[in-house]
Amino acid sequence: MNTLPPAFSRRALLRSTAVAAFAVSGAGLLASCAGSSGDSGAAAEGKVTATNPFGVAEDAALDVVVFKGGYSDDYARFDEKLYAKKFPKAKVSHSGITEIATELQPRFVAGDPPDVVDNTGAKKMVLGTLVADGQLANLSDLLKAPSADDPDTTVGDTLLTGALVPATFDGKVMGLPYVFTVHGFWYSKTLFDKNGWTWPTTWDGLTALAAKIKKAGIAPFAYGGTTAPDYFLQALIALAAKQGGADVIKAIDNLEAKAWQAEPVKAAAEAIAALASSGYFLKGSEGLDHTQAQTAWVQGKAAMYHSGSFIENEMKSITPDGFDMVFGAVPPLSATGSLPQTALYAVAGETYVVPAKAKNVRGGKEYLRTMLSKKAAVNFTKTTHALTVVKGATGDEDFGSTALGSVTKAIDAAGDDLFSTLFTSWYADLATTLKTEIANLLAGRTDAADFLSAMQAKADTVAADSSITKFKR
Amino acid sequence: MNHGKTRIILLFLALPLTLYAVLVVSPYAQAFQISLTSWSGFTAGKPFVGFDNFQRLFQDPDFWQALAHNGLLLLVVPLVTIVLGLFFAAMLNVGGSGGKVAGVRGSAFYRRVYFLPHILPVVITAVLWQFIYNPQIGLLNGGLEAIGLGGLAHSWLGDPTVALWALIGVLVWAGVGFYVVLFSAAMQSIPKDIFEAAELDGAGRFQTLTRITLPLLRETVQVAWIYLGIHALDAFALFMVLAPSGGPDNSTMVLSQYLYLSAFQKGHFGYATAIGVLLSLLSLLMTALTFGTSRKKTTIEF
């Protein structure tokens, strides 16, 4: 005869509660252990010499984390070999990963970050957050140090104009953007030559060319509506800046009131809206992602694609032979703009940072100085066909790439008239709204006035929000 | 006398309970704690802000929009998937003609084909449908034009009026197969003599389906509804692949996606965790409601 199991005695209940409470507090203790900052002792200092301006200890290990993306990470191994030649006693460790934030976040929280990080890719860390949290080392001494090739020139003087802008927060340089990217239209020289088309020098010339292209049965422009409609932001900014000068961009970046309602910005937005209303975009662009749009473009379904100079490398495996990809700068709205016609939207990306709590901050800065040597810069451009921020490192050499040749020519012609915008990396909320609203503009769902008032409204909201750290340029 | 038994039971339960507490309960507790801070994700310290995150959440129009989208998913996806699942299961088990209680011709083949989408990993399903929905060269628009319905061709992932429905379509397509199998199993456990008795009494096929088969499947349908409801609240991978920035004009943003973007794109970990806490509360609420409203006192046993 089975008896029913005994009722849960009070003692047993108390005991089980104690076990559970212990487990939860134990977990809490473990969590706080992980949360406490690691020991951030300063690395031993080596002797400061002309070739060792930061005083890197000769046996201090160097931990390098590189983003393994379109440019791969072979150039980083080359640079590490250069560093190792200078410091043969130092152990240099390399990791090429794709998910920077995912893998490095625990290291930052534990206070044990690497010495150099290439903060790039879809999963990169938000630079503004790192700066606001004081997690990055100030690189002003790197800029003042003598350059690796010519001890009479400082590192800062070897860089292209505006290269450091994306990593400058409140006047302080907190990172080193390495790859110099120009933004504009890309087209096939072969296609243009076949039809006798030339790259226009005014915006009206561009719309006339678009009409000709449409008559020939090809869509003039394409864009990736679901993932990268914001590629056209650079076109909008280029038009506005060429018309009204770089101050127009500064006002937008600084979240000034009515910055988006300035005349040049209005004219730029209307010009782009006109492209949509004239039907110059590849049909269905709003439903394509950037890969599909770019594939359609290299397959000849569209003539021009607005993007940065990384497009050549990105489409390397799909571009058919004889495409001859070349760069066409965004032509100005009128001949009486504030900036010359040769001015370019150019921005440096692939930002390298040195975490403030790294074990070998000096070594990190020395590694960056090595990357900015001519040897490293030429190697990078040779293997990736992308320019570094080192001014004139490769001269006129195009390493067999029509795209690189046209980009070098454009940069030479532009001289110091290089501009870019920063608000998309400073204010993530505003960047999100931009993506949504510019997609609406390109798809013809809204007109220029609606787009501008939506952007202004969000900019005003971000400006008034005290919980968002603000930056100024 | 029975204290010894209790002690042994507790001893064996101690390890699993501890594992459960550490791995399941404590993350929830930590999540609640983080949601009361403004943590940016990269510092060791987490500045305490109280219920500030929740306050901002309730005033955030993007949050309410995402919640509305989840609400639509919650209404449509379980309903359509279950109706389709029941229909196919009925066809495959009792839909056959000719007196016997069997499925239509080729049921064995159909059963396997219907289950195939469920085996595909979500990301592969998403990429597959990205190609199908391509407005230029995709299968859907191409097919519509081929049969003369070119007017129905849309920019499926680029048009704010159809994007969310396109994604719901994929969710249903991927889910129906599993529920066909689930309901088939339930239907097959109904003894055949009930059907024969009904046929003897002169019940038509439709009457048998609605008056006998479906009521006997009540508990299975309830379970299916809860699974699908949770799936609708959690829908993440598909939306991230097909509409990574929230869709055209933010028309497909769902809460799980909003959570992810707030944390990893904007660096607002505290805010994102608050969304997570609300999501889990919603799931609990939904489950409780479903159990509460559809419990019947009598259960039929066979």
What does this structure look like?
- The complex is a heterodimer of chains A (473) and B (302).
- In chain A, 43% of the residues lie in helices and 13% in strands.
- With 473 residues, chain A is an alpha/beta fold.
- In chain A, helix 2 packs across helix 13 and helix 8 packs across helix 9 (246-253).
- In chain A, the strands form 2 sheets. In chain A, strands 1, 2, 3, 6, 7, 8, 9, 10, 11 and 12 form a 10-stranded mixed beta sheet that branches. Chain A has a two-stranded antiparallel ribbon with strand order 4-5.
- Chain A starts with 9 loop residues before the first helix and ends in a 9-residue tail after the last helix.
- Chain A has 2 domains: 62-180 and 348-397, D-Maltodextrin-Binding Protein, domain 2 (3-Layer(aba) Sandwich); 182-346 and 420-464, 3-Layer(aba) Sandwich (D-Maltodextrin-Binding Protein, domain 2).
- The radius of gyration of chain A is 26 Å and the shape is globular.
- Chain B is mainly alpha-helical.
- Chain B is flat, with a radius of gyration of 24 Å.
Topology at a glance:
The complex is a heterodimer of chains A (473) and B (302).
Chain A: H1 10-35, E1 62-67, H2 74-86, E2 92-97, H3 100-109, E3 116-119, H4 127-132, H5 140-144, E4 168-169, E5 172-173, E6 176-188, H6 189-195, H7 203-215, E7 219-222, H8 231-244, H9 246-253, H10 263-277, H11 290-298, E8 302-308, H12 311-314, E9 325-328, E10 344-353, H13 361-371, H14 374-384, E11 387-388, H15 402-414, E12 418-419, H16 423-426, H17 428-443, H18 448-464
Parallel strand pairs in A: 1-2, 1-3, 7-8, 10-12
Antiparallel strand pairs in A: 3-10, 4-5, 6-8, 6-9, 6-10, 6-11
Chain B: H1 3-34, H2 52-58, H3 61-93, H4 107-119, H5 122-132, H6 139-146, H7 163-188, H8 192-200, H9 205-216, H10 218-234, H11 237-242, H12 255-264, H13 269-293
Helix pairs in contact in B: 1-13, 3-7, 3-10, 4-7, 10-13, 12-13
